[in-house]
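Lecture 7 notes: from sequence to structure.
We start with the chain below.
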Amino acid sequence: MDSATVYSGQNILEFRAKEKGAVIPTIGTITNMVTIIPGIVSVINNVGATYIGTEEENDSDFRIRRARSTSVPGKNNVDSMEGQIRELDGVIDVKIHENRTNATDDTGTTAHTVWAIVEGGANTEIADVIYGNIGGSDTRGSVTVPLINSSLQTININFDRETIVPLYIRFDIKPITDLGEINQDGIKQYIADNLAYSIGEDVETSKITQVAADAMLADGGNGYALNIEISSDNVTWTDFLAVSSIADKYTTDTNKIFITAIE
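Predicted structure tokens for the same chain:
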């Protein structure tokens, strides 16, 4: 866990749920302090969650994660860094970008710099792994963790957290039989639980089409998903969304999925 300095009066801090999965706390319900700290009078979650987690990964996502985790002993320091960060407790996703050229590249990363974007995990543990793998490279990011090396020098390690981008989805369902058999809530929940994107991954509708088809087989009744469109602002709709930065991560939930049943 990361430490935080608090001051007299009200303090606003970020917390992560201890349990993994789709944890959705109701505003105003987190009021009991399990570990009593002198000086802390009360706690409350007076705003909603920044973003919620997802349920247990599916088989395809597990295979991808396992393949990446075996890079821990890799020959390349960046591959090794990614694999080690993925093994840290609480880490959900990682993307490492390295600029080995002598000039700033098209991501805005300066020359000879490593840019790590990490979802989940403790800041100090992530910084320790980065420091152990960067060699002579610089580091990029808005999170700065000062570390003391063996020569008692203070080394600032930088990395970034993912930038959450909302993903809105809309599509029509044409029932095979009766309209009443379509379980829209079940379909939305299945899609929200099983549609996952990595940091820096673009979005296109073919993947959503497959997940929607699986959703109807699992919990939605008989039907076809047609005319699937996606949006990042619920205004402009398309069939492809590119990330504006490799730190972006598209996420959705049931409130961002719209289904229309057609005859």
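Points to note: The first helix runs from residue 59 to 69. The radius of gyration is 22 Å.
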